[in-house]
Design brief:
Layout: E1 12-15, H1 22-31, E2 40-43, H2 54-66, E3 70-72, H3 76-85, H4 98-102, H5 106-113, E4 126-128, H6 139-153, H7 157-163, H8 181-193, E5 197-198, E6 204-205, E7 221-222, E8 233-236, E9 251-253, E10 263-268, E11 274-278, H9 283-286
Parallel strand pairs: 1-2, 2-3, 4-8, 8-9
Antiparallel strand pairs: 1-10, 5-6, 5-7, 10-11
Length: 287
C-alpha cells in the first residue's frame, strides 16, 4: 500500500562521509541505537572509496534506502565509482573499491547508485549536499541544477557513457544561466561534489585541501565564508580537514575524516546534537 503522507521518524540523523568505513558505520549505528523501523539516516555522500569495506558499506546503504530508512546524496567518490564501473576511467590505486566490480550484485548496486540525488532537504530548516552550495546560487537554483545532473546520471547507459568522461575536466568556468551541454553538467558536479574554495564570482579552486588556518590562494576563500544570505542551513561533508568543526547558523560541516583516522559524525536534526565514533586507520594506509 502506498501512503502519500511523510513518515514521522523517532530520530533523524545526518551522517558525514563514510568512505567505505563499514566498521565505523556499524559502531556509529550502535551508538545511535539506530532502529531502521523508526529512525532515518541522511548521508552526505562519498559512500565508498578508501575505507576497509566499500562493498559492504554500499550494500548496507542500499538496503536501508530500499526500506525507506536512509537517503543519500552523491559525492565525488560515488560518481567516480560509476565512471569506473562504466569503463570510462581506471580504478584509482588508493580506492579500495575493486571488490564491488567483481560482486554478483555489482550492476544492481551501481544502477541504484546512479539514480540518487545530489541535493535533498532533510527538514524544513536544512539542505544537504556533498560539498556545499556556491555563493552565486540560491538554494532553489541549486535544487534545480542538482535535478538536471541527477537526470543525466540516471539516463540510458549510452547517454551516461557519453557524459561521464566530460565530468572530469577541472575547468575554472564561471557559472552563467545560459551555459549548456556537458560544460554545464560538469560545473554543477564540481560545485555540488568537489567544491572547497571559490572566488567572489564562483570560480572554483581545486588544489587546496587543507584547513581554515592554512594559506589559501589569493582571491579565494571557503565557499561558505562569502556573505550570502541563506534561508536554510547548509549541511555538507567532503572537506575532511575541517574535522566537522565548522558550525554557524548558515552551515554545518560533517566530514570528520573518519577514513584518515578521524571521526565518523552524526548530526541529530531535532536538537543539533553531535554523535561520533573514532575511525580506525589500517596499517597499509600508514605506509
Amino acid at each position: 500500500m502506498t501512503h502519500n503522507t511523510k513518515k514521522v521518524h523517532r530520530h533523524e540523523y545526518v551522517i558525514g562521509d563514510l568512505q567505505g568505513c563499514f566498521g565505523a558505520f556499524e559502531r556509529l549505528l550502535d551508538v545511535l541505537d539506530f532502529d531502521e523501523h523508526q529512525d532515518k539516516i541522511w548521508l552526505a555522500g562519498d559512500i565508498v572509496a578508501r575505507g576497509e569495506n566499500s562493498l559492504q558499506t554500499l550494500r548496507t546503504v542500499k538496503r536501508l534506502s530500499d526500506k525507506g530508512a536512509l537517503t543519500t546524496v552523491l559525492g565525488n567518490h560515488d560518481i567516480t565509482l560509476i565512471a569506473v564501473w562504466r569503463g570510462v576511467m581506471p580504478p584509482k590505486p588508493k580506492d579500495k573499491t575493486l571488490p564491488i566490480f567483481s560482486a554478483s550484485d555489482c550492476d544492481e548496486l551501481l544502477n541504484w547508485l546512479r539514480t540518487q540525488p545530489l541535493l535533498v532537504f532533510p527538514d524544513d530548516k536544512t539542505v544537504l549536499t556533498h560539498a556545499g552550495i556556491p555563493p552565486n546560487w540560491s538554494i532553489d537554483e541549486a535544487n534545480r541544477y542538482a535535478k538536471e545532473l541527477q537526470a543525466a546520471l540516471s539516463a540510458d547507459l549510452t547517454s551516461l557513457d557519453r557524459l561521464l568522461p566530460k565530468l572530469y575536466a577541472k575547468k575554472t568556468n564561471i557559472w552563467h544561466d545560459d551555459i549548456g551541454g556537458a560544460k554545464r553538467l560538469r560545473l554543477i558536479a564540481n560545485y555540488l561534489t568537489r567544491m572547497r574554495l571559490c572566488d567572489k564570482e564562483g570560480r572554483l579552486e581545486f588544489s587546496f585541501k587543507e584547513g581554515l588556518l592554512d594559506k589559501m590562494p589569493i582571491g579565494f576563500r571557503p565557499w561558505f565564508l562569502w556573505d550570502t544570505p541563506r534561508e536554510r542551513r547548509i549541511l555538507f561533508g567532503h572537506w575532511a580537514a575541517l574535522q566537522a568543526k565548522v558550525a554557524s547558523p548558515d552551515v554545518r560541516s560533517l566530514d570528520g575524516g573518519c577514513v584518515w583516522g578521524g571521526r565518523l559524525v552524526a548530526y541529530r536534526l531535532s536538537d543539533e546534537r553531535i554523535f561520533t565514533v573514532e575511525g580506525r586507520i589500517s596499517v597499509d594506509e600508514l605506509l
